[in-house]
Amino acid sequence: RGIPREPGAHWTEPGCQSCTCQGGQVLCDTVSCSVPCSHPLPAPAGGCCPTCTGCLHEGVARAEGDVFSPSDGNCTVCVCLAGNVSCLSPECPPGSCPSPSPADCCSCNPEKCNFRGRTYAHGARFSLDGDDCTTCVCQGGEVECSFTPCPVLDCPQHQRHLGPGQCCSTCRDPPAPAGCFLDDNGVEFPVGQIWSPGDPCELCICQADGSVSCQRTDCVETCPYPIRIPGQCCPDCSAGCTYMGRTFSNNETFPSALDPCLSCICLVR
Prior knowledge:
Layout: E1 10-13, E2 17-22, E3 25-30, E4 54-57, E5 60-63, E6 67-68, E7 77-81, E8 84-88, E9 113-115, E10 118-120, E11 125-128, E12 131-139, E13 142-147, E14 160-161, E15 170-171, E16 179-181, E17 188-190, E18 194-195, E19 202-206, E20 212-216, E21 241-243, E22 246-248, E23 253-255, E24 263-265
Antiparallel strand pairs: 1-2, 2-3, 4-5, 6-7, 7-8, 9-10, 11-12, 12-13, 14-15, 16-17, 18-19, 19-20, 21-22, 23-24
Domain VWFC: 1-53, 53-114, 111-172, 178-238
Subcellular location: Secreted
Pfam families: VWC, VWC2L_2nd
């Protein structure tokens, strides 16, 4: 490559090729790296072999003598020494811990509960003998019992019922209707009652199943000037005549409102 080399000279070419000059020839081979550590740092810029002057642990470069904790925690402590990473975990004494502290690195097994001659694991839920309405739970060696929560009922007190073996009351079915209840005016009619809801031409009856059946009356006028009586459905043709806003009895005569020379008479037929 245009550079003279002395016999026996050694040098490194780009690409980590180790070359030597022997008998006028250049012999090259890939650099062989001997790494005597478990967590070496990558080769520095321009170098070919990793270095053990620090540590590469979980993708993070650590300096020589650096003390750190791994990402998974669990109170393990690691140290970087000559490219090697050594980790130590705390030794936890055997036994249980009823109320472990968050700062305590030792894992612990919560205490079991001895209750009425039986042993329950931590977190176990159980019912008292013969009482399914009480639920108990074992918490760190102590038993806490409470009544089973019941849903809120939307029925009045006199309609609530507690059946045998039940923990919570339920609502009884409301009694069958004894009549018809109208929401618009709050009036209740007995079965068979007939009434008019406000229109004299409409009659309603209360059925046995609590429903209301209504029927309308169609009036047939048989005379040209019937009398309309307030509160009565159909006009009355037998009581007299209504003419020009005035009411006249049967056979009554009266002058015409259109011509005073004309005489009119009310005839009921």
